[in-house]
């Protein structure tokens, strides 16, 4: 039976790597993103915080086959101090980061789980797997990361209660907390700055590769005992205050 997968933020970065890995593994992949990517994938242009956009993406995935895998990789970053030179942290940008990273993740999770509950269970009783993307900033948020760390901390806190509740329907929920990865968020930095960041990783002493994130996504899908957990993918990195 052909299965489908929905990847948010799949036009670039970690989401793109996951979408390509899922396609190579035989999934019918649908990508929900604000823009279309260059790869030969099915795209639904939309925003994870808009209910109608997510419903369209879920419906498109279900049209390809039972929706078994969801990867929440859409997200935004922000560096802004609580007390900046121009005044206190503005609420508008704080809300936007929380909205995309946390509310958007929950929006996709709830609508995808509603669809997955109708899937026929496999030999393990599984009907679907939802993989969310947190960050090491959830644990060691740096100065200037108040909004980002709070949003990813919410994803961490969401993981276990969601897994416990959805277990009734055979739906697993696991989150990945990446460290420093070579994605579009970092690609705008000078090479010297990227090399400096890579030196902070104990081993391997380099930035993570999106393909390594995708490999963990595939393992989570294929290992039924992974559930309700947040897996750090960071080369033993522990972030300094700044």
Automatic annotation (TrEMBL):
GO terms for molecular function: (3S)-3-hydroxyacyl-CoA dehydrogenase (NAD+) activity. It is an enzyme of class 1 (oxidoreductase). Gene3D superfamilies: NAD(P)-binding Rossmann-like Domain. Keywords: Oxidoreductase. Residues 3-169 form the Ketoreductase domain. PROSITE patterns: ADH_SHORT (PS00061). Its EC number is 1.1.1.35. It comes from the Bacteria. Belongs to the short-chain dehydrogenases/reductases (SDR) family. This is 3-hydroxyacyl-CoA dehydrogenase. The lineage of its organism: Bacteria, Thermotogati, Deinococcota, Deinococci, Thermales.
């Amino acid at each position: 039976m052909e299965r489908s997968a929905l990847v948010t933020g799949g036009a670039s970065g970690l989401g793109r790597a996951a979408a390509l890995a899922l396609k190579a593994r035989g999934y019918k992949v649908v990508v929900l993103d604000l823009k279309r990517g260059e790869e030969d994938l099915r795209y639904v242009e939309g925003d994870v915080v808009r209910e109608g956009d997510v419903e369209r993406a879920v419906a498109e995935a279900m049209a390809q086959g039972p929706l078994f895998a969801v990867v929440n990789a859409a997200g935004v970053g922000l560096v802004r101090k609580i007390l900046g030179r121009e005044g206190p942290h503005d609420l508008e940008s704080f809300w936007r980061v929380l909205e995309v990273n946390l509310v958007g993740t929950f929006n996709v999770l709830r609508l995808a789980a509603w669809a997955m509950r109708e899937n026929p269970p496999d030999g393990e009783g599984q009907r679907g797997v939802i993989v969310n993307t947190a960050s090491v900033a959830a644990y060691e948020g740096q100065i200037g990361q108040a909004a980002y760390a709070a949003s990813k901390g919410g994803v961490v806190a969401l993981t276990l209660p969601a897994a416990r509740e959805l277990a009734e329907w055979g739906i697993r929920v696991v989150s990945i907390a990446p460290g420093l990865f070579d994605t579009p968020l970092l690609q705008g930095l000078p090479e010297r700055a990227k090399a400096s960041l890579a030196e902070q990783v104990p081993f391997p002493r380099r930035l993570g590769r999106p393909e390594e994130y995708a490999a963990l996504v595939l393992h989570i899908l294929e290992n039924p005992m992974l559930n309700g957990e947040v897996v750090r993918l960071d080369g033993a990195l522990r972030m300094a205050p700044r």
